Fold this protein.
Amino acid sequence: MAPSSLPLRAAILSLLLLAILLGAWELAVQPPANTHGARVPGPSKIFEHAVNELSDPFYDAGPNDKGIGLQLAYSIARVLSGYLLAAMMAIPAGFVIGMSPLWRRALDPYIQVLKPISPLAWMPLALYVIKDSATSAIFVIFICSIWPMLINTAFGVASVRRDYINVARTHELSPLATALQVILPAAAPTILTGMRISIGISWLVIVAAEMLVGGTGIGYYVWNEWNNLNLASVIFSIIMIGLVGMLLDQLLAYAQGLVQYED
Amino acid sequence: MSLFDDPFDADARLHAVGCACSTCAGTHVKADVPDNQEGLIDRIVVSSLVREVFGHHDASRRHFIREAGAGALAAALAAVLPVDKVMAAVKDGGGPVEKKDLKVGFIPITCATPIIMAAPMGFYSKYGLNVEAIKTAGWAVIRDKALNKEYDAAHMLSPMPLAISLGVGSAAQPYYMPAVENINGQAITLAMKHKDKRDPKQWKGMKFAVPFDYSMHNFLLRYYLAEAGLDPDKDIQIRAVPPPEMVANLRADNIDGFLGPDPFNQRAVYEGVGFIHLLTKDLWDGHPCCAFAASEEFAKTLPNTFAALFKAIVDATHYASKAEHRAAIAKAIAPRNYLNQPEEVVAAVLTGQFDDGLGNKKSVPNRIDFNPFPWHSMGIWILTQMKRWGYIKGDVDYKKIAEQVYRAADCGRLMKELGYTPPASTYAKYTIMGKAFDPAQPEAYVKSFKISRA
């Protein structure tokens, strides 16, 4: 077989695996006839549910019952505001840390302590201090997405080749011009890697944060369906969370491709 | 002086015409009675306040007014007592609401029935309000959102306003509990594997869930276990789990049982993972559970809105107390926007026609009931249990705190306005598992328990 058909063969294999998996799942959950209540639904049930939900994704039937599209939009808006806020602080701070060994050493202990804290541990404190649940959720996204961007920016800036900076110096560029015209393009791929890690973490965290504070968003949707032990809805929302997460990751991957360069 | 006389007139008397008491020797002066209703109410309020100050001692009032002048008395009174605020509070309810759009938080359990049903069944709009009933994930979150003023009022467990006002478990903020929502309506549910352990003495080492530390559920479970000779802090593990997660935890074998709110007891039966061991009405028939609560600040700055909201809740609570309305209510609050539960589960709870999970069909029409009146004695019982289990330490002025937080007088007045009959007294004696509770002797009651942290 010609090598060009490799993607085709991979696709066929993928589909075959999916079919086997779904088939086994469907068979495994055939219900015993005499009970009611929640049990793990089969793929056909979930598909049926998904068609139902996706046929009207933006309905708004009161404050506690909104369509899946609206809920996802709420979550994405929260993630983006926390994430962009973090980027606005992390990237300039990363530049400072990366360009100055003094600052790097001085700030390192704080970063090391703050980085591993689960963002949800901040939630009770945030609710108490900020006194607003929506802002608290955004704060939690902010605090979890800042570290990968900060560390990657600092690392990227610090490991720009000395030659580039020396060339800039011989051209008598100002420090700001050096940062923007030489270091930024050189460090961009590393910075983008940090941004890509951050958006992934943000999306992971928003679901948990919304399950905690509730109100709106995909996390609230999952919680509300869990409340009703409606597993078809829960599995459907798991798939939606996965799809949106992949989409966000692909966007950043595309941006990463734009700033890639060969040494 | 009759209630309608001008209390700042030195020649008027506090005592009514024909009063036989010794101070009323002289003739009664003709009263200058205001002719409109507004003026009358003002006069009555001020007159009552003046009586309070001078303790019905007419001679000293007349003397003071002659010496200092009526204006000085009025000014002195206004300085100590917010006369215009008292007048406004007495006349409120009729006035236009200051804020139409309100947010009220609730936890998706049947206890919140009046708060929830008031939205789809039009009780809020009947009193000119546009209320969004917002579903909330847990008690700690509802407390924080209420304290943050994201919610104007909220569904709370009846011990929570006491705890918030005292500043235990949160920052202290004066809170009002103008109405109880439901009485009874809770149950102890056990995992199926314990179906032969119906005697609590066999429960040593088991793990139980309650919705929150400051809940009737926690206090009733502790009371029940202690009566069976188990120390709830040592022999049993009690943990706080949000009600919606109780059934999932029971199925996952994380807990052996829970004393929780419905519909989750009935849901555990519906799912086949647990059975109803005991309804809490069999521990204390008529115990309070959840409440409608609002901050003192809300009640004082927006009195008309507060009164309208309060009326809507009292009205809805009365509507819910009628057995013939229960099926329709179940239908209104079961959908996704509210409880998000199968309608048959909610109906089983509200109508009291249910399966206990062991194959017995039961009929207990007052399994859950609705009664808005916040008895001060209920508040005192809760405080005694908080003291008993060490949630509050030191001397407690039971009566003062209960009367400050539980707004029995307000509730009684509104009930009368709506045409219902409030109880004559705000104190009652209770019998809980055969043991008498006298609200006049709280400290002795706390001391009477063998198992206690006090």
Q: What stands out?
A: The longest helix of chain A spans residues 175-213. Chain A has a mean pLDDT of 87. DSSP finds ten helices and no strands in chain A. The CA atoms of residues 34 and 40 of chain A lie 16 Å apart.
